[in-house]
C-alpha cells in the first residue's frame, strides 16, 4: 500500500486541498487504511470525476480505491455482474458488451467507478425509464468505520443511506449489479431542434416514453423568443436487423476513439461569452431540424467528451463549476424563470443539458426526483458567480427542488434540509455507525453532513 501527501481536487479543478492519498491494493490493506485514517478521517475516491469537493479531505486521508478493480463473476444467463467497486464503467463495457450486456445506467462519462456510481447514485439519459444506478444494485459489501465488512442488501436502511451517501457511510468494496441486455454495440438515434424552452418541454413530455434514452443540449445564451432553444437527442440500443450487413459481422464490438488531450495550460478567458456564443450558434445551426434512425457508437452517443482526455483543462487554471438542479413536475414556471435568469446573466455555458427524471429511488441523499433537471458548466472565474448561484439555490429550494451533491462545491448548508427531507435520518444513522467521524470529506464538513 502506497501513500503520498498531494493536492486533491474534483473534476472542476476548484478549491484544491492537500491530503494523504492512500492506495490500497487488497481488501486487507483497505481495512488497514480505514483503521489508520487519523484525526481528520478519510474518504474513498474513485476516478475523481465528482465535480466538487465530495472526494477531498483537507489534512486527512483520501483512499484511492481504483487498484481494487476485479470482476469476480458474470452471470451471462441471468444478467448480473459481481465486481470490485474500484472497476470503471469503461472496463465493464469492454468486458460485457461482447457477451450481449450493457451497464444499466451510465452518466456522461464512462470513467467512473462502480463505487462512485453507487456513492453518488448516478443517473443517465434513461432515468425516466430505468431510474438511477442504485436501482440495479442487488447488494454490496461495505467496509465500515469499525473495520468490519458488512453485506448490505437493497431494501435496508444502510443500503439507502449508502446509495447517494457520497462515501460517508463507508468504503464500498464489491457490488452485484443487474445488467441491460443488448443485441449490438450501436445506438439508433433521432435528433431534432426545438425553437425555445416551451417547445422543448412539450416535445420531451409528449414523446419521452417512446425512447429509453433522452437528453437535450440547451443554448443558455439565447435570449428573447429563442430563450431555451435546444437540440433534442433520443435513442435506444440498435437491434441486429437495423445494422448494415457489414456491421453484422461483429455487432457487439466496442470501439472508443481518443483525440489528443487538452493542453495542460489554457489562457484564462478563452471561454468568454463571445466564444461560447459563437459555438452555441454553430452547434444549434448544424443540428438537423429532424433526423431519424441514425446509427451511432456507444461512445459517440453517451460519452463524446471522453474522446478528449483532460477536457476539463479548457476552462483554464481557475476551473469551472458544474451546477445541476431538479424541480418537480408542476414547477415548470420555476424552470422557466431560472433559464431566463441564466440567459439574462449571459453565463458562458456550452455544456448545458435538460432532461426529465422518472420515479425517485429510495436513497436518502439520492438526487433524482420526478421532474426536470438542468445541468450546466460555468467558468469559476466569472465575476459575481457565487451570489448569482446562491440566488438560484434559493429559487430551487423554494420550488421544492434540490441540487446534486456530486457536482456541488459551494451550496450553503442552511438550504440542505429543505432540499433533502431525509437528511436528519442520514445524520442519525451516520452518527450511530461512525461515532468517531472516521469517514469525512470537505463536502461533509462544509454541509455538516
Explain what this protein looks like in three dimensions:
A hairpin with a 4-residue loop joins strand 5 and strand 6 (80-84). With 449 residues, this protein is an alpha+beta fold. The chain has an 8-stranded antiparallel β-sheet. Strands 5-6-10-8-9 form a 5-stranded antiparallel β-sheet. The protein contains 13 helices and 19 strands. The mean pLDDT is 95.
| Strands side by side in the biggest sheet | 15-12-14-13-17-18-16-19
Count of helical regions: 13
Structural class: alpha+beta
Query: What is the tally of beta strands?
Result: 19
Shape: globular
Mean pLDDT: 95
Could you estimate the helical fraction of the residues in percent?
10-25%
Instruction: Work out the radius of gyration.
Output: 21 Å
Assess the beta-strand content as a share of residues.
25-35%
Q: Unreliable stretches, pLDDT < 50, 5 or more residues?
A: none
Oligomer: single chain
Separation, N- and C-terminal Cα atoms: 29 Å
Largest sheet: 8 strands, antiparallel
Task: Summarize it.
The chain has 449 residues and is of the alpha+beta class. The chain has 13 helices and 19 strands.
Task: Please describe the structure with a list of short key phrases separated by commas or semicolons.
449 residues, alpha+beta, eight-stranded antiparallel β-sheet, five-stranded antiparallel β-sheet, 13 helices, globular
Q: Which SSEs are present, and which pair or pack?
A:
Elements: E1 2-8, E2 17-23, H1 27-35, E3 42-45, E4 61-64, E5 71-75, E6 80-84, H2 89-96, E7 101-102, H3 114-119, H4 127-130, E8 137-143, E9 149-153, H5 157-162, E10 171-178, E11 180-181, E12 186-194, H6 197-207, E13 213-218, E14 230-237, H7 273-286, E15 290-297, H8 298-302, E16 320-328, H9 332-345, E17 352-357, E18 371-379, H10 385-398, E19 402-403, H11 416-419, H12 423-433, H13 442-447
